[in-house]
Each structure stands twice: as C-alpha cells, then as structure tokens.
Specification:
The chain has 4 helices and 14 strands. The protein is of the alpha+beta class and 249 residues long. It has an 8-stranded mixed beta sheet, covered by helices on one side. Strands 1, 2, 3, 4, 5 and 6 form a 6-stranded mixed beta sheet that branches. A hairpin with a 5-residue loop joins β4 and β5. The N terminus is likely disordered.
C-alpha cells in the first residue's frame, strides 16, 4: 500500500514539475494544420487551441509567416503544440502535447474523449476534455528564463533571457466597424442580432470563458475576447482573418 502511495505521489510531483517547466516559456507555436487532418484549421481545432493558451497568459503564434523574426531565428524560445489522435470505432481520442525545439515532450495532456458521431463535434469535445489536464497551467509575466530541459531537477538546465514580446500580428487582419450587435441567449450560447433585427452570427459555448465557436453564415471560426475587445477569427484562403466586433451582452 505504501509503495502504491509513493508511486502516486511521485506521479503528481512529476506532473507539477512538468507544468512548472512549461510555464517558464512565454511563447507557444500552434500549427495551422494538425498532421492527422487534411485541412488547415479543420473543425476549428487550431484556433481553439490558440485561444486556450492565450487565455492561459501565453503569447501564441501560428506556424506561418506571422512568427516574429526572433522566434523564427531561435525556435528554442517557444514550445510547439502537437495533437495526437488514437481513435477507436466509437470513441474519438486526442492528446495535446507541448514539445521543445528538440522535439522532447515537456507536457502531455490526458486522452480527451468523445463518443459523438459527428466529426466536428467529437473532435471539439475531445480536445476540450484534453484541455482539462492544463487547468492549473498559467504563464506568469516576468518569468525570466526559458527551460529547455524536461528533466525535473535543478541540473542540466539551459536558460536564455526572454525578449520583450512584440505585438502579435496576423496573416490578414480586417477591423469590422459595423453597428452594435446584441446578444440573445439560446440553449447552447447566443445569437447576435443587429438593429433590423436580423440574426448575423451564432455563438456556441466552449469550456473556456469568453471563447465561442462561431458562424456568420459565410465562415466558421471563433469569437474571443482579447484586451477587453471581441474578435471573430476565421480562415479565408489559408489566411487568418481577425474582425473586431462590438457586442452588447
């Protein structure tokens, strides 16, 4: 019994240390397309992942031309996100991994699971389930070092001084200067209406605060709150579009 208790405590200790190591990084890179999928941002998994880590205080970039020069020149300043699937006939299983520049796994989530039959729903549900492993992960501004070793000890640890982060650009950015939109509650989120009144967008709740899966009739994406403002983010011709919204809840 004591042996099993020791193993459990040791596992918890390693998990806490791994999250601590991950929190030493400020930058995270999310791929535009996960390897097991066929399309860029398929099922909105990539934008959902980006929004999740931004909510945790990290500065997050997609692995395209928006990556600033200092990170492109030294990828060891950032953790890289990988999503792995291990599906069975009736269950969608995904695990979220954070890797350093050498490919070593710094942090791995549990297997997020979903039994939904529709792919978009099941992958989103499984990913949100995997996110729960990182509930305690938080980047604290002012962290002075980047950890490049996954060994939970005080030795063999390589550190570099973090630069002051630049404002995050997007591949394409369009500011929406339209009229105020009013949020009406529905069973699983909100619908946004204009003064006509006409429904112009739907917002579906996710497990994260101030983050919704969205559709405006022309594009699927997410609506997220950043620095006190709302933005609708989606892909068009493989470019990320970020439109500012004015919403009254």
């Amino acid at each position: 019994m004591k042996r099993y208790l020791f193993i459990i405590l040791l596992a918890i200790s390693f998990s806490v240390q791994a999250q601590s190591n991950a929190a030493n990084y400020k930058y995270i890179i999310v791929p535009e397309k996960f390897s097991f999928l066929k399309q860029v941002n398929q099922y909105d998994l990539n934008t959902l992942t980006k929004a999740f880590f931004e909510d945790k205080g990290f500065t997050v970039y997609f692995d395209n031309t928006e990556i600033p020069e200092e990170i492109a020149a030294d990828r060891c300043k950032a953790l890289i996100v990988d999503l792995q699937e291990k599906n069975s006939m009736f269950v969608t299983n995904v695990s979220l991994l954070l890797k350093d520049c050498k490919g070593a796994v710094v942090l791995k989530s549990k297997e997020g699971k979903s039994r939904e039959k529709e792919y978009a729903t099941s992958y989103n549900e499984a990913l949100r389930d995997a996110f729960t492993s990182f509930n305690d992960l938080k980047y604290v501004p002012g962290s002075p070092t980047v950890t490049t070793s996954t060994v939970p000890s005080n030795t063999n640890k390589e550190t570099k001084t973090m630069p002051v982060p630049a404002d995050q650009p997007t591949a394409t950015k369009a500011e929406q200067q339209g009229a105020l939109l009013y949020a009406q509650a529905i069973s699983n989120g909100y619908q946004l209406i204009d003064a006509t009144p006409k429904i112009v967008m739907t917002l579906l709740k996710t497990s994260m605060e101030d983050c919704y899966i969205s559709n405006n009739g022309n594009a699927n994406g997410i609506v997220i709150k950043k620095n006190g403002s709302w933005f609708f983010e989606y892909y068009k011709n493989n470019a990320l579009i970020s439109e500012k919204l004015s919403i009254k809840f």
